[in-house]
Amino acid sequence: MMGGDLGVDATVPGLSLYVNNHDCRDVSFELFGNKSIIEQHIKSQNCTIHDTGKNVISASEKPAKALKIGHGTSMFEAISWVAQGNADAVVSSGNTGAYMAFSKILIGAIDGIERPAIVSILPNILNSTVMLDLGANTDCPPTKLLQFAIMGKAVSQVLQQVKNPKIGLLNIGTERTKGTDLLEEAYVLMEKSENLNFIGFVEGTDITKGTADVIVTDGFTGNVSLKTMEGTIRYIAHTLKTGFSSSLMSKIGYLFCRNAVKTLKNAIDPRNHNGAPLVGLKKIAIKSHGNSDAVGFANAISVAVTLAKSGFIDDISKMIAEIEKGNSDENKNN
Amino acid sequence: MMGGDLGVDATVPGLSLYVNNHDCRDVSFELFGNKSIIEQHIKSQNCTIHDTGKNVISASEKPAKALKIGHGTSMFEAISWVAQGNADAVVSSGNTGAYMAFSKILIGAIDGIERPAIVSILPNILNSTVMLDLGANTDCPPTKLLQFAIMGKAVSQVLQQVKNPKIGLLNIGTERTKGTDLLEEAYVLMEKSENLNFIGFVEGTDITKGTADVIVTDGFTGNVSLKTMEGTIRYIAHTLKTGFSSSLMSKIGYLFCRNAVKTLKNAIDPRNHNGAPLVGLKKIAIKSHGNSDAVGFANAISVAVTLAKSGFIDDISKMIAEIEKGNSDENKNN
Asked: Angle between the A181-192 and A142-155 helix axes, to the nearest 10 degrees?
């Protein structure tokens, strides 16, 4: 409850917003943070507060340091609670590096997965695109990219309700000859995989075009691409705003087409896409954006509940195990 | 004159547009292509047509094949003409791979530069951002990134008129500890370089924020980032258009605020940013986007003329030579 730029000012009203707008008869919330602050505002009956006092991980703490001083903080205790099987999912707007480090150590990665990936659901012209990794893994050999494809498939099936999602591999061109040797190897692995509906290489323009349901890339490229998109949206919003307030005519016009602008705002509002699953863990962990407000936090809770109610973790574990088995059979045959 | 999706339908009116809007007393144009088609439409006195008949490099030709069959084509002959010192700059909307291959072989790279970079000038909230590489070099060791910084600086000085441009290195966070070892090495090289106003790591959001005048990255990341931006702009344009035509109110509103939308359109119109210099060659070569129309092609000509009138190539050559000298001195001392 203490994470993110706004802390309880976002998480408390975010939780209320979620509870008011969803049927929560089969959901309960375990809140970790400063009890004296939280209990003033929380009235919902299906909430239990776990007092962690003033112990928090600051936004600027390095993961290594966080691991040393983490015990007793709201983030650490919330993740421990889930790791011990007392809850099905954890949500936090706190320090991403610490969140990833705690989750990996306390919850652990699914067998065969080295390091979880950060997954985001981005808007596109047709619907939405599941994209991963968005920053957790800067170094991605082909086998890791194959795992991302499987993880992305499972996310798409649950959150986009797509039965056999189209998987694309991000490159600098769609032709088979484009890109690096590493991507060519990943291409071969994905093409060979019977579980995947692999559609080949896709480009940066395909993210918002809806060419693929899932786009796979390494964490460096994914992070730059996601932030380029965020920056472009802010730039356009700024230019539009300047334009609308540039003359009386424009101001009047704005009043008439407010709804059109609202549609755009909703479509591109990052709060409506908030809640990035850290996929590859044995439990569900959702990262809410550090600057998210109540609306964004409520959305992150919604992602957590949806994933927790699905057979998502089992599905991923089975598919990863099949691939691992395939690889070890192949090694025996060689 | 034959390159791009529209061929002469873009290049001929594009040239006319440029000539009509600029003082061309000290500029002349050497046009390479099918004379019988071009001469029907070109009336300008400072144009000479070099007939290359129907010999063209198709958009889908691989660079290796293009090199074999290139002789006599409009693209090859235009680049040869510049390479031989008969003209100062070449502009083409044709096949990028072939253009790069011909330019490297015929014109040659500046001493110390392995492979030219593709540079683009992107809009930002304050002004514009020079970004490179956008796809020519997928594999970029730290020394290459340092060269890109120098090349970007020279482009910024001429095209943005910035005396001491701020140089940023694209990463997944601004903190010094973020990113790969390769980027850390490049950081050290740039920081050490007395010629550069290096401001450190920048993120994807900084491209449109105007944090830096020049943003340096490898060709893989740059290409994905540029295309993500293009895709995001198309997505927003689509959403806005749908919104504006969704109701009579919105349609009326649109009439009032057409100017505001026009401002946005102009700001993000890729035609207004068309003309990507291939930097690192001994002559000026400008790549116009394959799908550019007359407006875009005229803009690419304008970039070519501006660079040709500057001391751009000499400046880059000197700065690269200084660094090479520094490196070899350092090697001697070690």
From this structure: 50
What's the Rg (C-alpha) of chain A? 21
Q: What pLDDT, on the 0 to 100 scale, is given for residue B252?
A: 76
pTM for this predicted structure: 0.89
- Residue pLDDT, tens place only, B87-106: 999 999 999 889 999 999 99
| Separation CA B21–CA B136 (nearest Å) | 32
| Mean pLDDT taken over chain A | 90
Q: How close does chain A come to B15, measured CA to CA in Å?
A: 29
Question: Residue B208 is nearest to which of A221, A235, A263, comparing CB atoms?
Answer: A235
Rounded to two decimals, the ipTM of the complex is 0.88
Rounded CA-CA distance B93/B298 in Å is 11
* Band (B176; pLDDT cuts 50, 70, 90): confident
Do A180 and B230 count as a contact with CB atoms less than 8 A apart? no
- Residue-wise pLDDT tens digits, B211-266: 999 999 999 999 999 999 999 998 988 888 887 777 777 777 777 767 777 777 77
Q: What is the sign, positive or negative, of the torsion defined by CA atoms of B305, B309, B313, B319?
A: negative
Residue A109 pairs in a beta bridge with A281
Which tokens go with B285?
């070569």
**Does residue A203 belong to the interface with chain B, where contact is any CB pair within 8 Å?**
yes
> 3-state class of B200 per DSSP?
strand
Are A228 and B207 in contact, with CB atoms under 8 Å apart?
A: yes
Q: Give A183's contacts (C-beta < 8 A, 6+ positions apart).
A: A142, A145, A169, A171, A201
Strand partners, B281: B109
What domains sit in chain A, N to C, each tagged with a CATH number?
1-116+280-310 (3.40.718.10), 120-271 (3.40.718.10)
Q: Å from A125 to nearest chain B CA?
A: 6
Which residues, numbered 155 to 174 in chain B, qualify as contacts with chain A under a Cβ-Cβ cut-off of 8 Å? 170, 172
Beta-carbon contacts below 8 Å between A and B:
211
Nearest CB among A206, A240, A253 relative to B256 is that of A253
Tell me which chain A residues have a C-beta less than 8 angstroms from the C-beta of B117: none
The answer to whether residue B221 neighbours chain A at the CB level (below 8 Å) is: yes
Q: CA A294, A296, A297 angle in degrees (round to 5)?
A: 65
Supply the DSSP symbol for B11: H
How many distinct helices (H) and strands (E) make up chain A? Answer: 12, 10
Whole-number Cα distances in Å, B141 to A170, A311, B217? 22, 44, 11
Q: Is B180's CB within 8 Å of A220's CB?
A: yes
Q: Could you read off the pLDDT of A74-106 as tens digits, one per residue? A: 999 999 999 999 999 999 999 988 999 999 999
Residue B145 CA to chain centroid, in angstroms? 17
Contacts of B208 in chain A (CB under 8 A): 228, 231-232, 234-235
